[in-house]
Amino acid sequence: FCGTPCQNAALKAYLGNIPDNLFLMDFICRSINSPVAFDAYLKDLEVQYSSRVSLVHLKNKKYGWHSLASQVQFKNGKESIKTVENDWWVQGFVHNDLYTRSSCYNCKYKHLPRLNVDITIGDFWGIKGQTQEDNFSGISAILIDSKKGYTLLQKIKSNLELDEKTIKEVLSGNPALLTNPKRSSRYGEFFELIEKYPFSVAVKKLIVPPIYI
After folding, report:
1. 100, burial (CB in 10 Å: exposed 0-12, middle 13-18, buried 19+)
2. Which of 60, 173, 198, 212 is the most exposed, fewest CB within 10 Å of its CB?
3. How far is Cα 120 from Cα 124, in angstroms, rounded to an integer?
4. pLDDT for position 209
5. By C-alpha distance, which of 12, 57, 4 is closest to 31?
6. Distance between CA 114 and CA 204 in Å, rounded?
7. Contact 186, 92 (CB under 8 A)
8. What is the full DSSP assignment across 137-179?
9. Counting beta carbons within 10 angstroms of the beta carbon of residue 30, is it exposed (0 to 12), middle (13 to 18) or buried (19 or more)?
10. Read out DSSP for 24-85?
């Protein structure tokens, strides 16, 4: 099972005893966004492209790992693929925290070691000394949280390219491992605005630098 840290905690609490053949995995979670905001984002695009959405692929790597591109395909065959520099969804989240879910501001699972999972994965932001090709494709961090997780990694490591790093190196580019996001002062305004305006207009009215659009 792979989910957010809080989803893993919920599953573990529900099951009580974890069976031997169930491995629990979380990821480095910055926060989860409001489904109301995401629905507004897609509806805005559907109006722009005159068609219903058929597929969404966030963090698409067509333009590289660091592009944070959002790929959206439509039933009429058209496609939108925009990067962190020109996608309103990424701009409103990554730079401005306009629609993070309220519970994420007080996350109870921003700690090490992880007590509810066997393995933690995530983007290895800030890693040094890698090839241009690897930096384009993306590099993952794998944190082993239990003996069970270690055993699993030993079984699959022949299929991976592994290099041992310190937890300090992981934390340097991933403060979200231990730090909660901070609520934007314009959080409430955003939800008022999307009642009146398309998603892109609401974000544009509230966005603060950096902005490249």
Report:
1. buried
2. 212
3. 12
4. 59
5. 4
6. 37
7. no
8. H--EEEEE-SHHHHHHHHHHGGGS------HHHHHHH-GGGT-
9. buried
10. -EEE-----B-HHHHHHHHHHHHHHHTS-EEEEEEEE-TT-GGG-EEEEEETTS-EEEE-TT
Helix, strand or coil for residue 191? Answer: helix
- Three-state DSSP at 6 gives helix
Q: What size, in residues, is the chain? A: 213
What is the dihedral sign for C-alpha 101, 105, 111, 115? negative
Are residues 146 and 24 in contact, defined by beta-carbon separation less than 8 angstroms? Answer: no
Question: To 10 degrees, the CA torsion angle through 174, 180, 182, 187?
Answer: 110
- In the block, tokens 């509230």 appear at 206
pLDDT, tens digit, for every residue of 3-57?
999 999 999 999 999 999 999 999 999 999 999 999 999 999 999 999 999 999 9
Residue 129 token pair: 């000394």
